[in-house]
Each structure stands twice: as C-alpha cells, then as structure tokens.
Amino acid sequence: MPSQSTFGDLLRRMRTAAGLTQEQLGVLATLSTQTVSTLERGTRSRPRRETVLLVATALGLSDADTHRLLVASRDTADPAAAYPDAAYPDAAYPDALPLDVRPRPRTLPPSAGDFTGREAEVAEVLGRLRPTVEPDAAAIGLVAISGMGGVGKTSLALHAAHQASPAFTDGQLYVDLGGYGPTEPRTGIESISTLLVAMGMPAAEVPADLASAVGRYRSFLAGKRVLLLLDNALDARQVEPLLPTSPGSAAIITSRRSIVTAGAKEIRLSAFSEQEALAALARTSGRRFGDEFEAAREIVRLCGYLPLALRIIGARLAARPSWPLAAMSERLADQRRQLDELDHLDLGVRRSLALSIEQLSNSDDQWDLQAVNAILVLPSAPGPDFSTKVAAALLDQDLAPTERLLERLVDNALLETHLPGRYRFHDLLRTYLSELTPGRANGNLAPVLRLYARSAWQASDRTGSVDERLHWYDVDALGPVVPLDDQATIAAADWLKAERRNVTEAAALATPEHDALLAQLAIAMLPMYVDLALHNDLAYVNRLAREAATRIGDGSALGILQHDAGAVLFETSHAHEGLEHLENALTLFRDADDETGQAMVLRNLTHCYAIVGQLDSSIAAGQRGLALLQTMAFPQRASQQYLYLGMAHGQRGETQQELAYFERAITLAQEEPAEFRRRHNVYKHTAIAHRRAGRLDESARLLRRSVEAAEQAGQLTNKAIGLVELARTQLAQERFAEAFECTQLAIEQARAIGIGSLEARGFQMAGQVLHIQNDTAGAHDQWRTARALYERLGMTKAVDELDHLLNEPQPPDVDRHFFWYDGQPQRRT
C-alpha cells in the first residue's frame, strides 16, 4: 500500500497548494470525488499510473513533481521499479512527459449492467466504427445518436463504446456537453480543456483561446486511435470543434436534436418494442412475470415503452417485491398521477421532458420559439397522429411554415414522423404537455372540425352526392363553398380517407359549443362513410350529430341526419328500424318546411317500401315525390324518383308502367348535366329490374353503360359494384367465362381502392360462377376468401351466409334451366 506519509500526504499538499477542493480536482481529472478522497487517505492499493497522471496534469504539476508523485504512489524511490515500462531520464526532465508516460485516457463511465435490447442499433454503431481502426484506414468514424429524452441514447452509446474500446488502443474519452441539463451547455473551450487534461496536458498549459486549443487537441489525436463519446450535445455547432479530423479516431455523439455534420451516420432512436420493453422491465425489477404477464404488458404500454420510464418503474418494483404488478399498472393508468409515478430518486420522466422544451425556449432562433408555441397547441389534435393540414388549422397558418415548425420539433425529438406528412407525440410527452395546458384539450377543436367538414363536402363531389346535399351546407359555420377541380376533389377524398379514424375521434371530443360544426361534419361525411362501407363510424358520428342538432334546434339538419341514419340502417339489413327513421325524417322536414328534404325522403321511401314488399306505400310515396318535384324550382334527382317508381310497378307485374318510368329515368339521366354523376345508378337499377323480369340482354347492356358511366365520373366504388352486377347477369345468360372475368375485375378494383366488403362481394360472386359449373373446390376457395374478408370487417351476417354455402354436403343440382338472381337460384320462364 502506498505510504500515507509519502503519496496521500503529498497529493493533499499539492492539491491544497493548487487551491482546489477534492471535488474540483475530481472534475478536472475526470475522477469522482470519492476516488480523490480514497487516494489522499492512501487506502487504495497501488493506483494505476493513468490515474496518477490524470491527477498530476489536473494539478498542473511540473515534470519533477509528477515524477515524485508517481514514485510515491508505488512507495519506492526507484522510478524503474515503480513503472518498469517507462523510460525516465536519470537527471533533467524534458519540458513535457515522454509520450509513453502520458496517460492513455480511459474516462468512459461504466456501461449499464442491465443494458437490454438494441441489438440492431449496437451493430449499426459498431459497423460504423469498425472501418476506422482497420489497417491503412482512411475513415473517421462518426455516429450521431438522436432521440427524445429518456429513450436511452447514452446507454446505447456507452454500451457500444465499451464493446469497441479494445480497438481504440490510444484511449477512450468521455465528455458530457451539458446540452440539456440544469446548467448552461458547456462552451467549446470548456469541453476542449477537459479532453486535453484527460489526454495528459497540464491544466495550466491549456490554451485560453478556442482555436489554439482545438489545434493542440487535433495534433494530439493525429496518428492515434482514440474513441470519443460526446454525450448530451446541444447541436452540431457544439460538437464540431471536438470531432477528430485524422483517420484512426472516431466519435459517438448523443443529442436530443438531430445532429447534421459531415460524414456522420445518424441513428434515430425510438422507444423500445414491446418485447424489448418487457425484457428491460424484467431485468430492472428482478421479476419473473409468470401469470402477471398481461399486467406487465400494460405497465410497459403505460410507460410508452420508454427506457427511462421502464428503469424507474423497474427500480420501484425491485424496492417493493411484495407489490403485484397489477397494483403498479393501476397507479400508472391514472393520467393525473402518471408522471408522478415515473419519478424515482434523481430520475424523472417529467424533468427529462421539460429540459427539451426549456432548451427550445432559451433559443435565440425564432423558429425554435415558434416551435415552443406550437407544441403547446398541437396535442389538441384528435387521434393518435395528425397531418400537416390539421396542424396548420390548429396553428391558423399556411402549410409551408407549419411543415417547417413540425420538422423543427422532429429534429428536436419532440415529435415523431412515421409517414410523410403525418406526425405524433410520444404518449408520455402528450401527458406532460396536457399538464402544461390544462383544459385546452378541446379548446382548439373548432378549426379541426371545420377543416374536416369542408374537406368532406369537397370530397363528396367524387361520390356524386354533393349537389343535392349542398342544400344543408352551413355557410356561417364553414365559410363559402370553394369549388375544386377533379384532381383536387380526388386529393381531398384520399386525404379524408387517411383521416377517417381521427374524424371519428374529433366528433367524440366535440362539446356543445361545437354543435353546429358537428352537425355539418356528419352531414358532409355520409357519402364518404358509405363509399368506404364504414357503417359503424357513420352510425356513431350520426348519433352524436343528431344530439347536437337537437340541442341547437336545427330541424332541417336533424331531418337530414335522421334520413341518413335510416338509409344506412336499411342498407345494413335493419329494414324496419330504417323505415322508422325515414318516416321521422319526413315529419321533421315538413315541420321545417324543407321541400328539398321532403323530396329526398320520399324518393328513398319509394325505394325502401318496394324492397320490403309494401308496394302500395312505395307507389304512393313515389307519386307524392313526383308532385313535389314539379313544384320545385330546382328539382334534384328526378331520374331516381322515376326509377324507383318503375321498380315498384314492375314488382306488381305492371310492365307497361315499369318500362315507361324506366325510359323517363334514363332520358333524364342522359339529358340533365346535374345527373352526370348518378347516371351509373339509374342504369344499374334499371338493369337489375330488367334482369329480375328475365330481360337479360337489356340488363347486360345497361350494366355495361353503368360501369362506363361510373368510370367516367371517377366513381371507382360504383364501377366495382357495376362489375359484380354485370357478372350476375352474365351468369344468368350462361356466359360463365365472361362472368368470372367480371368478378376478377371487380376484385381488382375493390382492392385498389381499399374497400374490403366490396372485394369480398367479388369473391362471393366468383364462387357462385364456379359453383354453378360444378367446380366445387374452386367455388369453396373463393368463398373461403370472401368469408375471411367479411370476418375481418365484422360483417357477421355475411359470414353466416358464407358458412351456409361452405357447409352444404353436396353442391345444388343446378342445371341449364336454372340461373342465379341475387344469390338465389330461380327457374327461368
């Protein structure tokens, strides 16, 4: 053991003479205060040469005093015995220590013993560093690890650095740049000084100006293999003076902000996967989950899969071995105290998140300051993510500056982007932001509801529903109608399709102050919901909107919403309930003296009554509808009123009236420009009526026209529906090859536009075509595919129908004298 009277006392005297406390010496020497205290007490056996030299250079000792300290640390007067690998001159000392006496700095903090996961990221870091140390390497390995606070950047960097350290034989250096912390970030000269002292330069000899210090620093690195870990950087400007410039050395940088510097490979770190999170929780808590596995899954979910949060909860569970995991899960589930639960000793998720926002707030960059304002507003966006358009609506500004602000937040790890133009907050960050802005959750919802409603009105033009329904467009709530060209209309529809889940959540978040906007949203969204077969979403939003229209006493809006609810109920096989809603809607429109609404309901009652066999009621409603249309200045959809009347007469066997009404419907559809987007519907329903009457050639001709009209109008859903109906007619004509080809075209079209229910109808019809040809195996393949699609969509009645078809012990004995009508074999007359 070194003699206290020689080494410990000598070190204490030298430290006191330098005017340093143990803590200050520890900082300069990159040692802990406890290590310095241990050295001075002489209780540490034979300290390493590198440690003694770190202390000597931190004290600014002369070469002679450094030699005295080295010898004293080994309790011998013989330098060669003290350090046999060092060649000390016998008398005079050079101006600096010989290179082989200088310390080979190893100042990396220890890697976390419970480091878990991140295999791919570790491999990526090591892969970037490896070429740096290969023979004749010309590369400088630079890796920048970025991500939100608490995501595990430093843990990953340290783990990878320790794995790579054997290859960097001239040392491994660590410096905390203090970019995000309670104190000001380190200046360039402060960081360079720390590194130079760690490399063996006496503190007194470190140049005072940054340029000179950088020069000395890079001269030292030249020709050496040194690994630098530059932790907690503020930005690229802070790290650039510290980066090696000669081959052989490498640097790992960590920062919450995206570090863009020449030659650096950026690794954007995100939260753990569920599997990694469970492994991390198991290691830190020391628990085996067993029958508590589901509770463990809930804990890691509530921690947002964030490594810091998992470490804190793991430590708390380790200190409470008797606690069931469900108890911790319940505490985390209370959003009011969630972040309180994620504080433990000197660790805290809330503080970690706050540092990122504080750093932006202290910036001189105006875009950073605007980003801080934005981050307090954006959490009110409905849904798990949001688009640039929604953000622009919330911030009340154009798309270009909004996108710049969003990307600034992404660069600072305060926002994630998983798809171009779509963004999301980490769950814990959203919780923290809600603490900063209590009560604002729904305060900014109006611009989002307005955006969704306006977009839905614009997108409705694609479905051919906008002209008549514009009668219920509320200019006061939404502003003037802005006509769009075809491409813009399609773009609006595609965007709204991507937003559909958020639209439903926006409706759920609406409060009474948003009643007028909510009613507008539901009215505008109907064509889109129907087009995408989103019946559950439609029913939910429609119910909320009817409650809103009732509260504000808007009878006309309530009438159209009641009509929409009835029409969809009827289409989804709830005929009695659907008719009741339609009849109530007619009463509401009469009370509101709304002729357009009355005409719409009478038209649909004509159709619905006929479908359920109430033919007298159907014809009566149709005649009343026609009489009303003749009194209106701008009658809408007269062609469909004639069409439905014709169908009712056809069902009563009144062929002459049926054909007369059909002819009138087709003439109106062809002549009236306003009917352009509905011609396909007139052709289709007329064709179906002809098919049911056995007029198959006329049915096929009109269905081809229906498919063409839908394609010309850009209504791809209706095109696919027309193809299925054409296949049905061709099957009745015994044109099996053509029928099967139509089903394949329908399936392809439905798949392209992402409507699973329509794709399933195509497979179901294809199965019928094969089945009637006695290809039982082929038919069952098609039906099994259809069944899987229906089951995925939750369409239980369709699943039951397919089960019935699949479970028949023998295929039906269908010969050439039978053909299929709407799924049922009918004898041809």
Protein described:
- The protein has 829 residues and is mostly helical.
- It folds into 6 domains: 4-82, lambda repressor-like DNA-binding domains (434 Repressor (Amino-terminal Domain), Orthogonal Bundle), CATH 1.10.260; 119-268, Rossmann fold; 274-345, Helicase, Ruva Protein, domain 3 (Orthogonal Bundle); 364-439, Winged helix-like DNA-binding domain superfamily/Winged helix DNA-binding domain (Arc Repressor Mutant, subunit A); 442-593, no CATH class; 686-692 and 705-829, Tetratricopeptide repeat domain (Serine Threonine Protein Phosphatase 5, Tetratricopeptide repeat, Alpha Horseshoe), CATH 1.25.40.10.
- 61% of the residues lie in helices and 6% in strands.
- It has a 5-stranded parallel β-sheet with strand order 2-3-4-1-5, with helices on both faces.
- Helix 31 (595-611) packs parallel to helix 33 (638-651).
- The N and C termini lie far apart (114 Å).
Helix content: 55-70%
Shape: elongated
Strand content: 5-15%
Q: Total number of helical segments?
A: 41
Quaternary state of the chains: single chain
**Residue-averaged pLDDT:** 83
Strand order of the largest sheet: 2-3-4-1-5
State the distance separating the first and last CA atoms: 114 Å
The main β sheet shows up as: 5 strands, parallel
**Estimated radius of gyration:** 38 Å
Tell me how many strands there are.
Answer: 12
